[in-house]
Amino acid sequence: MPIEIMEILNILNKEGFAAYIVGGALRDYLMGKEPYDFDVATSAEPDEVEEIFKDYILNTVGKKFGTISIRYKGYDLEITTFRTEGHYEKNRKPKEVSYVESLEEDLKRRDFTINALAYNEKSGLIDFFSGREDLENKIVRAVGNPKERIEEDALRIIRAIRFAGSLNFKIERELYRSIVENRLLLKNISKERIAMEFNKILLSEIPSRSLKIMADSKVLDVLFPDLAKTVGYNQKTPYHIKTLFDHLLCVVDNVAPILTLRLAALFHDVAKPLTLSIDEEGIGHFYGHDLLGSEICENVLRDYNYSKATIKTVKLLIEDHMKVHENMTDKALRKQIRRVGRDNVLNLYDLLIADRFCTLEDRDVEFLKVRKNRIKELLEEKTSYDRFLNINGKDLIDLGFQEGKIIGEILNYLTEAVLENPSLNNKDTLLEIVKEKYRS
């Protein structure tokens, strides 16, 4: 453990308080991973913690629940008083806590045995619930009765699935049974809390592991019924040997851990079951699934209170994932950059490469990689793909044109000209073009 974290424990000890490293950092350390998210449990109450560390940067937003956050020698950590939690209302976090004297009482309230470990130099590893053994056996097990843990806070359903997927562990049988039987309790959890936990799944190294568990346990049906319709779905096309859901999982795993990109990867074909048509040869087609899919995804993300910026980006990626052809001129690529946005277009091509890779194993993706490199070159052009034209309607009115349809026609003409030749995107040059074409 970092010496700075041990110093925190020693400072609390010198003031007469017990203190232990707990939580995810300890779990990761025991697994041989670099710990980064440090939590300390102590017998000191929040006011006492504040006084002891008053010379450091503190955040007291969690003080009501016994937590003081501190910035100490480059490390951010939370110091929380030994506590038990009050009454859980509607399967959510409690609104109040009670402080206790015992570390064991504090650890009893935790969700899973692998998160209910504690350590300090004097006592060594403290393991009341066989969490070390579960780590070694790669098992996610509830502390105590799994049904009670889930009824206390149903978000633990998603947390169990996340840990199982991100750590490549198995969920203990009774806990898994409780997840399946109590999955509808997730409807009592705020959309924001679900989204935060789901984002961690999407940004994990191999999201498909958790997503498969969500599908198998029918948790996916509760949270994302539109996605659940893709499970086991036969696409009836020679280009896809995987079921639709397996294809989506493959694409998610094969794009970079960028939230908007992985959301787009997960939802890009969500509308296929709604747009299937079969031709006379028995081959399936999904005309319009890109546009309908972007609408479905927008509704889902809005329901889970994602930001407007996130929704906009994901929509753009889904809408454009079918607007790529093997032969595209620079003009067409410039249009695409303008349509998708310079900040998104390279991610679009990462999505396209993964999408094609996850169909037939021998499908060529090289032309997409070449195209992506060409787009990088086009992005170096001086043309701004955000504002784009270096003149506007006011400039045309100043030139003597009347407000109305003609202004739009001229701007559209100039846009096409600049997409063909970006060097024309100079105000004086554009005005000369207008004078020559519309005033001659």
Automatic annotation (TrEMBL):
Residues 297-434 form the CCA-adding enzyme C-terminal domain. GO terms for molecular function: metal ion binding; nucleotide binding; nucleotidyltransferase activity; tRNA binding. Pfam families: PolyA_pol, PolyA_pol_RNAbd, tRNA_NucTran2_2. Keywords: Magnesium, Metal-binding, Nucleotide-binding, Nucleotidyltransferase, RNA-binding, Transferase, tRNA processing. Gene3D superfamilies: 1.10.246.80, Beta Polymerase, domain 2, cca-adding enzyme, domain 2. Residues 168-228 form the tRNA nucleotidyltransferase/poly(A) polymerase RNA and SrmB- binding domain. GO terms for biological process: tRNA processing. The keyword Nucleotide-binding applies. InterPro entries: Bact_CCA-adding_enz_type3_sf, CCA-adding_enz_C, HD/PDEase_dom, NT_sf, PolA_pol_head_dom, PolyA_RNA-bd. The keyword tRNA processing applies. Residues 19-141 form the Poly A polymerase head domain. Its cofactor is Mg(2+). Belongs to the tRNA nucleotidyltransferase/poly(A) polymerase family. This is HD domain-containing protein. It comes from Anaerosphaera multitolerans.
